[in-house]
Specification:
With about 350 residues, the chain is α/β, with parallel strands linked by helices. It has 13 helices and 12 strands.
């Protein structure tokens, strides 16, 4: 298994398992390689954070799991079901167990329907009785901190961004899903509201026994909520592992560069490290070998000719890099010896 690019998969115990997923979009200019043969899994009750720059394929990956975007190739297993093989009728049933919170809370809500109807849209499609829908609507609104007697008849235009996101979360919870995919759920919100929504998701995860895939570009947010983290770049997996381990001792130069790009708390010190040089290459024509090599300070000839596969570089930590970074302690020891 090691060296295959799927070395970090953990077997049948995973609730969600994605293997060699490919998502491509044909355009007049060529084929956009949005997601290129990535693999990951999520254990029951776990939160996987997916992080990377805009255009790395994070949101496309989440949408592909629910078959909201067409899967070009690869395998997706949810429980005992193979998503890529399911017909549309089967997918409608499966999606009751797999719900998604979209990035823009306001535009994801039907502007002509009241909150009480929006949160039980899935139940309506499933043919649930009116009495059950009414009871569930009140219950889930209360669960996300919106008093049913105050918000049930409100239209989305009367909601703030934070309130609209709570409604979107309530809608996802109404069907009692096992898997919740959060696509940048706090990126459009104020910082104080972000904290409220993140705390709410953590509370609801425990209350409803949820497994969560949390997609974001904010590394601080991902570290706060995630058990495992997967770093993506230009449609590829760069690194996968325990969130604390990956953040404290990144193995991939791209992960290190992302962490160095986070502003420090002291405004006089700016950033932890230098900014990444160059632009993200076009997904229409990604670089040969390692896709990060055109911006990587450690790139060598091998990086241009051979694509690195995801492999275990330290216990429980995996990276797709020919020349992974040393842990902080090992790097310090190495520097001391050189001196």
């Amino acid at each position: 298994m090691a060296g295959s690019g799927t070395a970090h998969l953990r077997g049948d115990q995973a609730l969600l398992s994605v293997e060699d997923l490919v998502v491509e979009y044909p355009t007049s200019a060529g084929t956009v390689q949005a997601v290129s043969k990535i693999s990951f899994d999520v254990l029951p009750g776990e939160t996987l954070g997916i992080v990377g720059e805009s255009g790395c394929g994070k949101s496309t990956t989440g949408r592909a799991v629910l078959r909201l975007d067409r899967v070009t190739a690869g395998r997706i297993r949810f429980g005992d079901d193979w998503i890529e093989k399911a017909d549309e009728k089967a997918m409608r049933v499966l999606r009751r167990d797999m719900q998604m919170i979209f990035q823009d809370p306001v535009s994801s809500l039907n502007p002509r329907r009241s909150v009480k109807d929006i949160v039980v849209e899935g139940m309506s499609v499933a043919g649930a009785p009116k009495a059950d829908r009414a009871a569930t609507s009140a219950q889930v609104l209360d669960s996300v901190g919106l008093a049913p007697e105050r918000y049930s008849d409100v239209l989305p235009r009367a909601l703030s961004g934070g309130q609209a996101q709570r409604v979107a979360i309530a809608r996802a919870l109404a069907l009692s899903p096992r898997l919740l995919i959060c696509d940048e759920p706090v990126s459009a919100l104020d910082v104080s509201v972000q904290a409220q929504i993140l705390n709410l998701i953590e509370e609801l995860k425990a209350e409803f026994d949820l497994t969560v895939v949390f997609i974001a570009h904010d590394l601080g947010v991902v570290r706060t909520v995630s058990d495992k983290v997967m770093v993506m770049y230009l449609g590829k997996v760069c690194e996968f592992g325990d969130s604390v381990q990956v953040y404290d001792n990144p193995s991939h130069p791209y992960t290190r560069a992302l962490l160095d790009s986070v502003p420090l708390t002291d405004p006089d010190k700016g950033f932890a490290g230098p900014a990444l040089e160059g632009d993200v290459p076009s997904p229409l024509s990604p670089p040969s070998g390692c896709r990060f090599r055109t911006r990587c300070p450690n790139a060598q000839d091998r990086c241009a000719t051979t694509e690195p596969e995801v492999r275990e570089v330290r216990p429980g930590q995996y990276a797709a890099c020919h020349f992974p970074l040393l842990p902080v302690s090992d790097a310090t020891t190495s520097l001391t010896k050189q001196l």
